[in-house]
Write a structure and sequence with these properties.
Length: 185
Protein backbone atom coordinates (compact mmCIF):
# COMPACT_ATOMS: atom_id res chain seq x y z
CA UNK A 1 0.00 0.00 0.00
CA UNK A 2 1.07 3.55 -0.51
CA UNK A 3 0.23 6.78 -2.25
CA UNK A 4 0.23 7.17 -6.02
CA UNK A 5 3.76 7.30 -7.36
CA UNK A 6 5.31 5.65 -4.29
CA UNK A 7 6.63 2.60 -6.17
CA UNK A 8 3.98 -0.06 -5.58
CA UNK A 9 3.93 -1.25 -9.18
CA UNK A 10 7.73 -1.17 -9.38
CA UNK A 11 8.01 -3.44 -6.34
CA UNK A 12 5.25 -5.68 -7.70
CA UNK A 13 6.96 -5.97 -11.08
CA UNK A 14 10.22 -6.91 -9.40
CA UNK A 15 8.57 -9.71 -7.41
CA UNK A 16 6.84 -10.99 -10.55
CA UNK A 17 10.00 -10.93 -12.68
CA UNK A 18 12.56 -12.16 -10.18
CA UNK A 19 10.54 -14.50 -7.97
CA UNK A 20 7.62 -15.57 -10.22
CA UNK A 21 4.93 -13.99 -8.05
CA UNK A 22 1.45 -13.64 -9.47
CA UNK A 23 0.48 -9.96 -9.76
CA UNK A 24 -2.96 -9.04 -8.47
CA UNK A 25 -4.40 -5.55 -8.63
CA UNK A 26 -7.78 -4.40 -7.40
CA UNK A 27 -7.71 -1.84 -10.23
CA UNK A 28 -7.21 -4.28 -13.13
CA UNK A 29 -10.95 -4.86 -13.64
CA UNK A 30 -11.51 -1.12 -13.04
CA UNK A 31 -9.09 -0.26 -15.85
CA UNK A 32 -10.85 -2.75 -18.10
CA UNK A 33 -14.22 -1.16 -17.28
CA UNK A 34 -12.81 2.33 -17.89
CA UNK A 35 -11.55 1.22 -21.31
CA UNK A 36 -15.00 -0.18 -22.10
CA UNK A 37 -16.54 3.20 -21.23
CA UNK A 38 -13.67 4.92 -23.11
CA UNK A 39 -14.34 8.52 -22.05
CA UNK A 40 -12.72 11.58 -23.55
CA UNK A 41 -9.83 12.44 -21.21
CA UNK A 42 -8.17 15.30 -23.05
CA UNK A 43 -7.78 17.23 -26.25
CA UNK A 44 -4.83 17.54 -28.61
CA UNK A 45 -4.44 20.94 -30.28
CA UNK A 46 -4.17 20.89 -34.07
CA UNK A 47 -3.92 24.56 -34.99
CA UNK A 48 -7.54 24.62 -36.09
CA UNK A 49 -9.77 22.54 -33.86
CA UNK A 50 -8.58 20.26 -31.05
CA UNK A 51 -8.97 16.52 -31.45
CA UNK A 52 -10.64 14.76 -28.50
CA UNK A 53 -8.52 12.01 -26.98
CA UNK A 54 -10.25 8.93 -25.67
CA UNK A 55 -8.85 6.92 -22.78
CA UNK A 56 -8.01 4.01 -25.09
CA UNK A 57 -5.96 6.33 -27.34
CA UNK A 58 -3.98 7.69 -24.40
CA UNK A 59 -3.34 4.24 -22.89
CA UNK A 60 -2.33 2.78 -26.25
CA UNK A 61 0.15 5.62 -26.83
CA UNK A 62 1.46 6.21 -23.29
CA UNK A 63 0.69 3.06 -21.28
CA UNK A 64 -1.29 3.06 -18.04
CA UNK A 65 1.46 4.40 -15.80
CA UNK A 66 1.96 7.56 -17.84
CA UNK A 67 -1.74 7.89 -18.61
CA UNK A 68 -2.54 7.96 -14.87
CA UNK A 69 -0.37 11.06 -14.66
CA UNK A 70 -3.02 12.92 -16.63
CA UNK A 71 -5.46 14.46 -14.13
CA UNK A 72 -8.57 13.49 -16.09
CA UNK A 73 -7.48 9.84 -16.38
CA UNK A 74 -6.80 9.56 -12.64
CA UNK A 75 -10.04 11.40 -11.85
CA UNK A 76 -11.97 9.02 -14.15
CA UNK A 77 -10.49 5.96 -12.46
CA UNK A 78 -11.11 7.34 -8.98
CA UNK A 79 -14.72 8.32 -9.70
CA UNK A 80 -15.60 5.14 -11.57
CA UNK A 81 -13.99 2.94 -8.92
CA UNK A 82 -15.65 4.83 -6.07
CA UNK A 83 -19.01 4.78 -7.86
CA UNK A 84 -18.91 0.98 -7.99
CA UNK A 85 -17.73 0.85 -4.34
CA UNK A 86 -20.67 3.06 -3.34
CA UNK A 87 -23.02 0.42 -4.80
CA UNK A 88 -21.09 -2.59 -3.49
CA UNK A 89 -18.09 -2.00 -1.22
CA UNK A 90 -16.80 -5.52 -1.74
CA UNK A 91 -17.10 -5.66 -5.55
CA UNK A 92 -13.43 -5.02 -6.43
CA UNK A 93 -12.37 -7.02 -3.37
CA UNK A 94 -14.27 -10.13 -4.48
CA UNK A 95 -12.62 -10.06 -7.90
CA UNK A 96 -9.12 -9.73 -6.44
CA UNK A 97 -9.69 -12.39 -3.78
CA UNK A 98 -10.91 -14.83 -6.45
CA UNK A 99 -7.58 -14.34 -8.22
CA UNK A 100 -5.72 -14.77 -4.92
CA UNK A 101 -7.64 -18.01 -4.32
CA UNK A 102 -6.33 -19.41 -7.60
CA UNK A 103 -2.75 -18.40 -6.79
CA UNK A 104 -3.02 -20.03 -3.37
CA UNK A 105 -4.54 -23.19 -4.84
CA UNK A 106 -1.51 -23.47 -7.15
CA UNK A 107 0.94 -22.47 -4.38
CA UNK A 108 2.04 -19.43 -6.36
CA UNK A 109 3.16 -16.49 -4.23
CA UNK A 110 1.19 -13.34 -4.99
CA UNK A 111 1.72 -9.61 -4.71
CA UNK A 112 -1.23 -7.21 -4.55
CA UNK A 113 0.03 -3.94 -5.95
CA UNK A 114 -2.71 -1.49 -5.12
CA UNK A 115 -4.35 -1.95 -1.73
CA UNK A 116 -6.05 1.41 -1.09
CA UNK A 117 -9.02 0.82 1.21
CA UNK A 118 -9.40 -0.49 4.73
CA UNK A 119 -11.72 -3.34 3.76
CA UNK A 120 -9.09 -4.50 1.26
CA UNK A 121 -6.29 -4.33 3.82
CA UNK A 122 -8.35 -6.15 6.44
CA UNK A 123 -9.30 -8.90 3.99
CA UNK A 124 -5.67 -9.38 2.92
CA UNK A 125 -4.49 -9.45 6.54
CA UNK A 126 -7.19 -12.06 7.34
CA UNK A 127 -5.71 -14.17 4.53
CA UNK A 128 -2.28 -13.98 6.16
CA UNK A 129 -0.80 -11.57 3.63
CA UNK A 130 2.15 -9.39 4.58
CA UNK A 131 1.02 -5.75 4.45
CA UNK A 132 3.80 -3.47 3.23
CA UNK A 133 3.64 0.30 3.00
CA UNK A 134 5.82 2.00 0.40
CA UNK A 135 6.64 5.63 0.99
CA UNK A 136 8.46 7.95 -1.36
CA UNK A 137 9.65 11.30 -0.04
CA UNK A 138 8.45 14.38 -1.92
CA UNK A 139 5.53 14.88 -4.27
CA UNK A 140 5.27 12.16 -6.93
CA UNK A 141 1.58 11.44 -7.20
CA UNK A 142 -1.31 13.17 -8.90
CA UNK A 143 -0.89 16.85 -9.67
CA UNK A 144 -4.32 17.97 -8.46
CA UNK A 145 -5.21 18.47 -4.81
CA UNK A 146 -8.58 16.74 -5.30
CA UNK A 147 -6.86 13.62 -6.62
CA UNK A 148 -4.21 13.67 -3.85
CA UNK A 149 -6.90 13.94 -1.17
CA UNK A 150 -9.25 11.36 -2.72
CA UNK A 151 -10.30 8.63 -0.32
CA UNK A 152 -8.36 6.07 -2.35
CA UNK A 153 -5.16 8.01 -1.61
CA UNK A 154 -5.73 8.74 2.09
CA UNK A 155 -7.82 5.99 3.70
CA UNK A 156 -4.85 3.80 4.64
CA UNK A 157 -2.51 6.59 5.79
CA UNK A 158 -2.68 5.41 9.42
CA UNK A 159 -3.44 1.73 8.84
CA UNK A 160 -0.90 -0.54 10.58
CA UNK A 161 1.43 -2.50 8.30
CA UNK A 162 3.92 -5.30 8.76
CA UNK A 163 6.77 -3.57 6.94
CA UNK A 164 7.74 -0.19 5.56
CA UNK A 165 9.83 0.37 2.43
CA UNK A 166 11.17 3.87 1.89
CA UNK A 167 11.65 4.52 -1.80
CA UNK A 168 14.22 7.27 -1.48
CA UNK A 169 16.90 6.17 -3.89
CA UNK A 170 17.39 4.48 -7.22
CA UNK A 171 15.22 1.81 -8.79
CA UNK A 172 17.98 -0.72 -8.03
CA UNK A 173 17.84 0.26 -4.36
CA UNK A 174 14.06 -0.24 -4.38
CA UNK A 175 14.56 -3.63 -6.03
CA UNK A 176 16.97 -4.61 -3.26
CA UNK A 177 14.34 -3.71 -0.66
CA UNK A 178 11.73 -5.71 -2.56
CA UNK A 179 14.06 -8.70 -2.80
CA UNK A 180 14.30 -8.82 1.00
CA UNK A 181 10.53 -9.27 1.17
CA UNK A 182 10.45 -12.21 -1.18
CA UNK A 183 10.73 -15.83 -0.25
CA UNK A 184 12.00 -17.61 -3.38
CA UNK A 185 10.01 -20.62 -4.50
Amino acid sequence: MGRAGSGKDTVGSRLVQRFAFARIAFADPLRSLALDVDPIVGHEPTGFEPIPLRLSDVVRREGWDRAKGRPEVRRTLQRLGQGVRDQDERYWLRLALAKLDVAERWHIPAVVTDCRYENEARALRARGCLLVRIERPGEHGPAGEDERQHRSETELDDFPTDALLTNGGSVDELYALADRLAVPR
